[in-house]
Design a protein that fits this description.
heterodimer; A: 365 residues; alpha/beta; Rossmann fold; six-stranded mixed beta sheet; 15 helices; globular; B: 75 residues; alpha+beta; SH3 type barrels; 1 helix
Chain lengths: 365, 75
């Protein structure tokens, strides 16, 4: 696997990208949808190399922590501070997102309550089993990569009739915002790099509309530097041959039809809904909610939460524009000045795959 | 958040719970989302769940494509 980072191979790929880019001529702008791709591109210094070769990469909305509106974070903070004997469990990044009510980490828990950082939904489930006297709320956020695991934990809780466990869900689907970005016309894109691990779950078909309706090329990419360059090269090939498609350049992990077991569990436990995204607004059928049969494990139902996601963004933070790909992080006046990893003013500077944090860590001039 | 790692299955039980080896570290993992899983298989693990199996043949094909591309450009 070392060869996916081999200097000679990467140089060869970059030369083939340059040749294709020269044939096509500028501008060649692609969006890497996934925040983990943004990490690879910057961590390995591919951004300037690709730019020299003639391809500009733009980071997209693929950071679930970032696109979750403040209302969800505030609801979690409300539970932790307002409800005694409650354990609020969530992924580490989620605890540092700043809102008008502070963050989960700065919040003072109610008596007997505490915050617990987990790596997996199964840890939250295990906590509930071991501490039956406390209410455990798992604040579950994610795209299709993570959603099956969260759905499975709900199904397991139901199977065990676990009465002290519920999920505050912020679950997002990747294809609908791509349509929203294309329909807005804000960006001139020539192609997409599709997320590797989301695609391992959903397969290739959900992206077909990008090629069929918008005539844009795209390729599913893996997470090593050679994977990224191979996918960029594939997108350029499609443009040259005038045959936009959904290519799979991560065949060792992604199957055309995706993971049917994972899809079945999502379908069993969850229902599609229209959802608000930070920066992108209301997108039809872009989110999932816990289905009627599993309502007893839905924290919104169980604790009577009323979320108003349409009315919650911190003033000054331009994370929303970063997520749409219209503003590169250094273009924000707060970036690296008032907004830094140790004192973030918005989620894009908090999440490990938030574009602002990635730029700050690897590509700060 | 979509960070996931390639790891090798060390053990799994009848509840499809088990362990994987990731760079020498043992991690707990659940294998419910996979059709087939047995010790020795390579899988992609995300947040404690194996979400996909790795296809060795495909990996080799990608590698030989990479080598070809690198060689073709050297001439």
């Amino acid at each position: 696997m070392k060869e996916f980072r081999d200097r000679k191979i990467l140089a060869g790929l970059l030369r083939s990208i340059r040749r294709r880019a020269e044939q096509l001529g500028p501008p060649l702008r692609m969006m890497e949808v996934c925040g983990t791709h943004t990490m690879t591109i910057h961590r390995f210094g591919l951004q300037p190399l690709l730019e020299q070769a003639g391809v500009i990469m733009t980071s997209g909305p693929g950071c679930p922590v970032c696109i979750t509106p403040d209302a969800y974070h505030e609801a979690a903070i409300g539970l932790l501070t307002g409800r005694p004997n409650t354990i609020l469990a969530t992924f580490g990044d989620m605890t540092r997102v700043p809102t008008r009510q502070g963050s989960l980490q700065t919040a003072i828990p109610a008596p007997g309550s505490r915050l617990k950082i987990v790596y997996s939904p199964r840890e939250a489930l295990e906590t509930a089993r071991q501490d039956p006297g406390r209410e455990v709320v798992f604040f579950g956020v994610g795209f299709e990569t993570t959603i099956p695991s969260i759905a499975l934990s709900i199904k397991q809780a139901a199977g065990e009739s676990l009465a002290n466990f519920s999920v505050l869900s912020a679950l997002w689907l990747i294809p609908p915002p791509l349509r929203a970005i294309l329909e807005s016309g804000e960006l001139r894109l020539q192609g997409f790099l599709y997320p590797g691990h989301v695609s391992a779950i959903i397969g290739l078909r959900p992206y077909a509309f990008v090629a069929e309706e918008f005539g844009l090329a795209g390729a599913v990419a893996g997470f090593e530097p050679a994977d990224i360059l191979l996918a960029v090269s594939s997108v350029l090939d499609q443009i040259l041959r005038k045959k936009p498609a959904v290519a799979n350049e991560y065949g060792r992990v992604v199957r055309e039809e995706g993971n049917s077991r994972a899809q079945a569990i999502m379908e069993e436990v969850l229902e599609v809904k229209d959802a608000y995204w930070r920066g992108l607004g209301l997108i039809p059928r872009s989110g999932l909610k816990i289905g009627k049969a599993f309502q007893a494990w839905d924290a919104e139902e169980r604790h009577g939460l009323k979320l108003k996601p349409e009315s919650s963004e911190l003033p000054g933070c331009r994370c929303g524009e970063v997520l749409r790909g219209v503003l590169p992080p250094p273009g924000c006046g707060l970036f690296g000045r008032k907004c830094r990893p140790e004192s973030p003013l918005g989620p894009c500077m908090v999440s490990l795959e938030g574009a602002c944090l990635v730029y700050y860590k690897y590509s700060r001039k | 958040m979509c960070l996931a790692v390639p790891a090798k299955i060390v053990s799994l039980d009848e509840n499809r719970e088990g362990e994987v080896d990731y760079l020498g570290t043992r991690l707990k993992a659940n294998f419910t989302l996979l059709e087939e899983a047995k010790p020795g298989d390579w899988v992609i693990v995300h947040a404690g769940y194996a979400i996909s199996s790795m296809d060795e043949k495909e990996a080799r094909e990608t590698l030989s494509l990479l080598r070809e591309l690198a060689a073709a450009q050297d001439k």
